[in-house]
């Protein structure tokens, strides 16, 4: 009871003290609110993106079902036959559901809007991050789900009915879909007559039988346009055998734990069933080997976080933690400066019997109170800004992405986080000043207590810490910005501005056989080549289409194996005129011979690939073999495995999509004439690319109105690569964090120096009374105030050098110690710091000596 009364007394006294010093309180609250707000925003985003639960009733009982392979990799996708086995035999779950995402072509909906207009109007479209369709086709974001999906999640239809209430026989006889309330409102204006309406997805007719609730996302993060039963998948993919292929892993699987069953029990039973299913898989498939079930809390994201995402999250967390450190150092340096004026008060309290521990507790109470007030300010502001950001981000995406739903509303978890970080920040920034102030008060006299050397050193250390951490953030942000710029402006080794990539997709209908597709592609190539301004047409994957394939390479005549593999290189199927069309010169040898049928088994290497395989030697005439075992490829994809290939040429290196430039090491393999339909068409134009892409639209429609195509220059595709997007997003986040750090450090330097100038008013008056010039006073103030800034700059460059080593995985074409970033950020920060120091120091020049001598 006595302790509670003492705490209340400390709170009341602290509140009165803070009110008497409104300026100090406001600056401290503002600085801490920035630091707390940035951390709260990142924590909220982390919860909204990474650890969000499923959108279901009682989400705590929903789990992800995945398998850990013998290699240790967690596979979050299963085949439909395996899902059926889990659904029918597992007793640890009250229900098991399957889910997959598709983009299906939508027809048969009246009042159809232009998808291309919607794409172009979105922020991503305006930034050139989307590949527009070359015709006016519309795609619908579709979630393909098991028939028990809605009942297991515990969600009822807003209108109409769900699949489980219809039954499989009725669904097969009369195919049905559900429409989301969001798409119903956006696309049909909330027309109740939508129930019973027929729409066509990939050409198959479906009847809309229900409407899902507003913003219902189920097991994903975005609201789809339609929900389609998995059992009807053959209607939209007629050539697919997914429902019967046990080795086609394409479904995410989720379960609801039965009452009283733990995740460990469910994992044990699932592992046992997965072991029993091993014999039903292809003997060479991963699932035919020992596997272990992984049951994790229900989340839209797979259980295993990628190394890149984990690194990005860690770097962001470290960055915002550094911003909080800057904010705390900011408030601490100001608290320390203000403590000089409180020495009389603190000394008197000690003289009246207060213990040093009592003083420290009182000072910590005041700083904790500032932290809580800062948290109270940061929470609503952060929520408002996050709400606006999420809304704008959703609007930036094109409509065919669906409606992204991110819950950034503060809940008990976020509230508890803000309280904890606010109290922690308050104690963190108040601890050092409290200890130093109480120690100084022990040895101060009732009058004339000056600033102790220890207090000055601590204040300088705090300023230097702010500068060092802020500079490290600025340099890291600058390097990431330069990395993103370099990714776009680098020399790719090919002509990216005047080569257009035409990627096409055939309708999934039975008449589109391989022969029919080949005829259409030959017709399309001939028509495109006849367009005015077209200088060349070839078929191949573009260097930066995110679709690179790799193969093991051996040079001793034997098939590649762990014992004789010389290198793991990228390979690309190309036509003979590929190098001429893209403007890639050959440094040695010759290109492929243009001929029909199966080409000779010859290859062309890039310069770096040749140096990797035969360093310092002439590779022409040598042979190699390629093997793709263990490497990613699609079913039915053309593979370079088999007999040896002879090297006939060496081409200049190109840069593609990898951050480390490893895809410069290329093996170019001649593309057979009968596989042209499997690869994009690359068109070199002498005219402007934009008019040429518009001229292609009627040509594509004339070949086949059902042929879907997208066009983009290779330079536009560069902006859509994973490497460039990662670099750009990293640059935006790092720059934002570094700007917050710079703002806080500038405020801290300015506030601290301003307070010190006021405290030294009497000293300044004495100096001026005995003959000191104003410029001498200014030089003295600048010299003393700039010393910790310069120390902080040196320490900051050391921290930045260490941080750049951590960032080397996302730096595109930059060394880990980039001179421009280091020098530019350091000079900019020095200039800002000098301005923040100079402005309050000028006040000392205007001090009246007589007034200063009477100042107390």
Key phrases:
25 helices; six-stranded mixed beta barrel; 856 residues; six-stranded mixed barrel; 49% helix; alpha+beta
Describe this structure in words.
The chain has 856 residues and is of the alpha+beta class. 49% of the residues lie in helices and 16% in strands. The protein contains 25 helices and 25 strands. The strands form four sheets. Strands 4-5-11-7-9-8 form a six-stranded mixed β-barrel. Strand 8 (198-201) and strand 9 (204-212) form a beta hairpin. Helix 23 runs antiparallel to helix 24 (819-845). The longest helix is centred in the middle third of the chain and has 41 residues, at 356-396. The radius of gyration is 34 Å and the shape is globular.
Number of strands: 25
Helix/strand/pairing category: alpha+beta
Tell me the number of helical segments per DSSP (H or I, 4 or more residues long). 25
**Rg over C-alpha atoms, rounded to the nearest angstrom:** 34 Å
The proportion of residues in beta strands is 15-25%
Distance between the termini: 41 Å
Helix content: 40-55%
User: What integer is the average pLDDT?
Assistant: 82
Assembly type: single chain
Largest sheet: 6 strands, mixed, barrel
Low-confidence runs (pLDDT<50, min 5 residues)?
Answer: 111-124, 445-450
Strand order of the largest sheet: 4-5-11-7-9-8
